[in-house]
Amino acid sequence: MSGPTSRLATRALGALLAFAAIVGLAAGCGGGGDSDDSSEPIKIGISLPLTGEFSQPGTAAKQGYQVWADTINSQGGLLGRQVELDIKDDASDQNTVVADYNALISRDQVDLLMGTFSSLLNLPASAVAERNQMLYVEPAGGAPEMFTRGFQYLFFAQQATADHQGDLFVDYILGLPKKDRPQTAAYPSIDDPFAIPVIDSIKEKFEDAGIKTVYEDIYPPSTSNFDSIASAVKSADPDLIAHGAVFDDGIGFIRALSKVGFQPRYFFETSAPSGAEQFSNGVGIKNTEAIFYAVSHTPEAKTPGNEDFVAAFDEKFGGLPAEDAADAFAVGQVLQTAVEEVGSIDDQAALADYLRNNQVETILGPLEWDDTGAPQGQFLIGQWQDGKAEVILPEEAATTDTIIDRRPGSD
User: Fold this and answer.
1) Which of 11, 74, 121, 274 is geometrically suited to a Cys-Cys bond with 323, CB 3.0 to 4.6 A?
2) Tens of pLDDT along 183-206?
3) Pairing between β-strand 240-243 and β-strand 292-295 as defined by DSSP bridges
4) Is the pLDDT of residue 9 over 70?
């Protein structure tokens, strides 16, 4: 199998080159909205995958943006002006997201931008923003290659990049008594620029510690039937599975494992398990038990403003917010802080400079970035227990002092 990281980089580079002519059409346009002393609303442009393969997290992100807009408007607005969201549907398509952000900038003349969902879509979308010298804070796009392009206006509003998402999980597994540590592991993953670096990093650390790889595979995003992958994993009989998933594929794979009757001792999955009730409804409560995952947010967090956010979300949409909704709300907090501290929406370079040099308090906790826009923090590690998503690591953020160290039904 060819190296996944190099294939992704080639694919992303090809996509960006293909988009270059389109991006160039809007180059130099910048935000064309009203000046700071206007009484007109501040228009914020967003494209999200409201349909297509990323529709579930994309819809959650839209909800988070809407709660943020409602919150700030109820408090008098941004710089004394109401906020108006201009949201388009990119249909989970790279070409569409480029066209959307070009239209938001050059036709709709938005004042500010917020990011879309997924590294796959944010790679080309952030290039549009960069060419137009507009601040681009994104809620879900932590692939390391996002931050190797020398961009000055890009910032990721989570705690760390994808290659560090599983760090605390790895530390926990390697800290188990030798008799309990897994000896073998399987690494299936969707072909996605966020999921693959997470799994690559976990795999490298486990192999260095002597955990043998008995299965690895990268499947296309269009995959909808996971029976053959589940059967192959069962044949390999790993002690541990680390699965790189987005959402629907995460649910599909767990269902397929249940269908073939295989239960690893330890199971880690990216992204999907943080989908709150959508995840547990998708796989069934009994199939969630003891699943590990990395997560940026928990409704129980004692971070400033989190209790109000959770309450506002419940009032507007009902239930607890998914992680992607919280991440989008945090984008709003980051953007709001930069604008209020700079005191203007006209100087986008000053907004970016502020974020590069300051820490911002959010419902995810304090966020800060290096010169590339990559965050410099640490993810939380969650685990499903008795039908509820709990945070188990780090200890100071844990919602329970229990960690289930073996999945029910495993040998």
Assistant:
1) 274
2) 999 999 999 999 999 999 999 999
3) unpaired
4) no
CA-closest candidate to residue 63, choices 332, 336, 294, 366: 332
Measured between alpha carbons, how far is residue 186 from residues 40, 140, 213 in Å? 55, 25, 6
The residue with greater pLDDT, 406 or 47, is 47
The two three-digit tokens of residue 217, written as one number: 């595979």
What pLDDT does residue 15 have?
45
Please give the domain boundaries of the chain with CATH numbers for all domains: 4-159+303-367 (3.40.50.2300), 164-295+379-397 (3.40.50.2300)
Query: Are the beta carbons of 243 and 270 closer than 8 angstroms?
Result: yes
Question: Average pLDDT, stretch 305-315?
Answer: 97
3-state DSSP of the chain: CCCHHHHHHHHHHHHHHHHHHHHHHCCCCCCCCCCCCCCCCEEEEEEECCCCCCHHHHHHHHHHHHHHHHHHHHCCCECCECEEEEEEECCCCHHHHHHHHHHHHHCCCCCEEECCECHHHHHHHHHHHHHCCCCEEECECCCHHHHCCCCCCEEECCCCCHHHCCHHHHHHHHCCCCCCCCCEEEEEEECCCCHHHHHHHHHHHHHHCCCEEEEEEEECCCCCCCHHHHHHHHHHCCCEEEEECCCHHHHHHHHHHHHHCCCCCEEEECCHHHCHHHHHHHHCHHHHCCCEEEECCCCCCCCCCHHHHHHHHHHHHCCCCCHHHHHHHHHHHHHHHHHHHHCCCCCHHHHHHHHHHCCEEECCEEECECCCCCECCCCEEEEEECCEEEEEECHHHCCCCCCCCCCCCCC
Whether the pLDDT of residue 10 is over 60: the answer is no
Read off the pLDDT of residues 200-246 as tens digits, 9 standing for 90 and up: 999 999 999 999 999 999 999 999 999 999 999 999 999 999 999 99
Per-residue exposure over 353-379, b if at least 16 CB sit within 10 Å of its own CB, e if not: ebbeeeebebbbbebebeebbbbebbb
Query: What tokens were used for 94?
Result: 């790279």
